[in-house]
Structure formats: C-alpha cells, structure tokens
Write a structure and sequence with these properties.
Blueprint: H1 5-8, H2 13-19, E1 27-33, E2 39-42, E3 45-48, H3 60-70, H4 75-84, E4 86-88, E5 94-104, E6 107-120, H5 132-135, E7 140-144, H6 150-163, E8 168-172, E9 180-181, E10 184-185, E11 193-197, H7 201-211, E12 216-219, H8 225-236, E13 240-246, H9 250-254, H10 257-265, E14 270-274, E15 280-284
Parallel strand pairs: 7-13, 7-14, 8-11, 8-12, 12-13
Antiparallel strand pairs: 1-2, 1-6, 2-3, 4-5, 5-6, 9-10, 14-15
C-alpha cells in the first residue's frame, strides 16, 4: 500500500492492520469517531474496520495521537490545524477535524475536544478528457451537485491550461485544489501554476491579480458577494476566470440570488455541467 503509506503510518497499528485487508484502490476515507468503531469508506458506503479483539472503540487520545503524528509532533502545527479545521499530508491526503470550536469576537481561534476525524485519501485520476483543452479558450464555470467531481474537473482544466503554457493562478483557500504541503502542491496542477492558500477568496484573488500577472485565475466554489466583486475586478483587468458552483444547471443557477447576480455580470462565457455519473456537457452562456 505504498500509495497511502502516509495515511497508514499515522494510524494506530490495530487500525492499520485492519485496513490492509481491503484493496487500496477501493478505499476513499477513514472515519474515526470517539466512542465508535473505526470505519472505512468504500464506494460511498462506510464499513466497520475488523480490528482485532482488544482494541475496543476509538478514543479521544487516539484522535490526538493521529493529529500529533500527522503534524510531525509539532504543537505549533497542531494549533494552526485547529484554526483551519484540516491538515494536509504528504501526497495530498487530507484530515478533516470535528470537535468544539473556540471563538472570540465571532472569530474561530481553534478547536478543542476533538470528537472525530475524516481522513480523505487523495488520488490523481487519469485524465481522459479528449478535446478538453480546445474548449478552454473562454472563461468557464463548472456546475454540478455535491460529490460529482467539480474540483477534480477544475484541477484537470488548470493542469491542461498550465501545461500548454498559460499562466494560471489558483486561489486555494481550503487547500482542496492543489493540496499544498510545506508550500509544494501535492496534486498535479501544471508547471506554470501559482498557488495561494489561506485567507478569503476575495482577498486571495486580488492578491494574485496584483502580484502574479496571471492569464487565468481559478477558484473553487463561489459562495459570497465578495467572490463576485473580486472576479469582476479580475475580469475587467483582462484575466480569464475558471471556477465552480453548486448547481445542476443554468436554470437552478438563475434561481439563486447570488448566482443570478453572477449571470448578470457576464463573467463567464460557457458552462461545464457535471452529473452524478461524473460526465459533463458544455453549454454556452
């Protein structure tokens, strides 16, 4: 299981041995919840891991040890992890964290009393998108329901544009596009791509516009009026946009006030619309 060794090596030995009974290519996530048996997600369904007798249920100490191991036993890194709610591992694997939020003046400072971890296994699927590059001559918005592969398609578009010689800047506020670890993208986003992580999308897009002289700016999940403001500014400066949004099509898109404003701004010229089978078709705007 070389591909997911960075995940397996941070798990308790009993869970690691149980996981080795499943085909590596089938495993999607490990779900570890305090007071519950460990599970693995395979083909969209959670299965209880057959740990040997004596392990019992996942404990809060187990969760803390996993986070410490993932952060190479750096207390500072753990604290930063608490603030962001996730931690990226070498190889692009990602640990999502759940527990009790610590807030001050409405701002999230950290998270305590860790109650569960979601360890998502990163894979770089083969790129079978014949003719996709030829379709990326204009600003493009990728639509689809949750879990249909919007971020995967976005990453493929970024990689194709970048490897064809285009300068692409990626505002990766949640770390899901490039999955940077120590500043190095763990996912293939191309050789002419610059990645900015952290902060808000609006701030990040304007930062990239000012500093990186991009031809394209890519962002995952448009969710706020501030996102639209930044994209409008980028568009007026001649930068082409590549983005995703949760919607099943242009009718659903236009039925939401934020996205109706997006349509009115005419920032995009075409849609890539994905379905649950991860197939997409193109529609002009």
């Amino acid at each position: 299981m070389d591909y997911i060794k960075n995940v397996l090596e941070i798990l308790p030995s009993e869970i690691r041995c149980a996981a080795e009974q499943f085909p590596e290519e089938k495993m999607e996530e490990f779900r570890l919840r305090a007071g519950c048996p460990p599970t693995v997600l395979i083909e969209g369904r959670e299965r209880i891991l057959p740990v040997r007798t004596g392990f019992g249920l996942v404990t809060c100490s187990d969760l803390q040890e996993i986070l410490l191991g993932a952060s190479e036993h750096s207390a500072y890194a753990v604290n930063e992890t608490m603030r962001e709610g996730y931690l990226t591992l070498p190889g692009g694997h990602r640990i999502g964290i759940c527990g009790s939020l610590v807030k001050k003046d409405g701002e999230i400072l950290s998270i305590k009393e860790i109650s569960s971890l979601c360890i998502r296994i990163s894979r770089e699927p083969p790129l079978h998108r014949c003719g996709l590059l030829e379709q990326l001559s204009e600003p493009t918005l990728i639509l689809g329901p949750p879990g249909c592969g919007k971020t995967t398609l976005l990453r493929a578009c970024i990689r194709l544009l970048s490897d064809s010689g285009r300068r692409v800047s990626v505002e990766d506020d949640r770390g899901e596009i490039a999955a940077c670890w120590r500043g190095i993208p763990q996912r293939n986003v191309g050789v002419h791509t610059d990645v900015l992580t952290g902060g808000e999308k609006k701030q990040g897009m304007l930062w990239l516009l000012r500093t990186m002289n991009p031809e394209w700016i890519a962002v995952d999940e448009i969710t706020s009026p501030g996102d639209l403001d930044a994209m409008e500014t980028c568009s007026y400066c001649g930068v082409k946009l590549l983005a995703t949004a949760h919607a099943g099509g242009i009718r659903e898109l236009s039925g939401r006030p934020l996205y109706q404003n997006l349509l009115d701004l005419k920032l995009f010229r075409q849609l890539f619309i994905l379905d649950y089978k991860k197939q997409f078709y193109t529609e002009r705007m």
